[in-house]
Amino acid sequence: WPKADTAAIDPALSSQMALVRRLVELGRATRAESGVKTRQPLSRALVAVTGFETLSPELHAQITEELNVSSLASLSEVGGSLVDTTAKANFRALGKRFGKGVQDVAKAVAAADAAALSASLRDTGTASVEVNGEPVALAPDEVIITETPREGWSVASDSGATVALDLEITPELRLAGLARDAIRLIQEARKNSGLDVA
């Protein structure tokens, strides 16, 4: 077998590509949940995840193409107006750390500002709540964040990453979707007839 040249591996690029794949998976999941076909172009996707701002324009273009959207932007640019956010304790994860004190932590999480908790977990990978006068740091797997999209949006979140798709289909977008469907049907007919695409 050939030996891999480990010196050619770019850890930063590998990490960024993993992030791109994660965002594309989330975007496709929310598209499937909303019932909008992948071939139907959408106007925009909004993303919130640690490291998004470090992605190159080429990787932004890759996400835009994979999700079939016209534009891609950070969710922070439009604020939290797209979703209603709730937070609750993940008893399984917190129970290991706090034992019988898990109820106090759960109450603190429930009383906290869910949107601020979500933003902190997404931006820094940690969030803090006050339990019996003491600050307690929480990891993303210790808090269950639920984001319910407002009308006209479909949102998917997982482990601190969120992708929101604008589901409004303008007449121009509808025509673009029909064109993609026509191309697909013609290409399938070519293949089934044994015709060379060239």
If you had to describe this structure to a student in words, what would you say it looks like?
This protein is an alpha+beta fold and 198 residues long. It folds into two domains: 6-80 and 151-169; 83-146, Signal recognition particle alu RNA binding heterodimer, srp9/1 (2-Layer Sandwich), CATH 3.30.720.200. The chain contains six helices and eight strands. A four-stranded mixed beta sheet has the order 2-1-8-7, with helices on one face. Strand 4 and strand 5 (134-138) form a beta hairpin. The longest helix is centred in the N-terminal third of the chain and has 24 residues, at 11-34. The two termini are 37 Å apart. 27% of the residues are buried. The mean pLDDT is 87.
Topology overview:
Blueprint: H1 11-34, E1 42-48, H2 57-67, E2 69-74, E3 83-89, H3 91-98, H4 102-111, H5 114-124, E4 127-131, E5 134-138, E6 143-149, E7 153-158, E8 161-166, H6 171-193
Parallel strand pairs: 1-2
Antiparallel strand pairs: 1-8, 3-6, 4-5, 7-8
Helix pairs in contact: 1-2
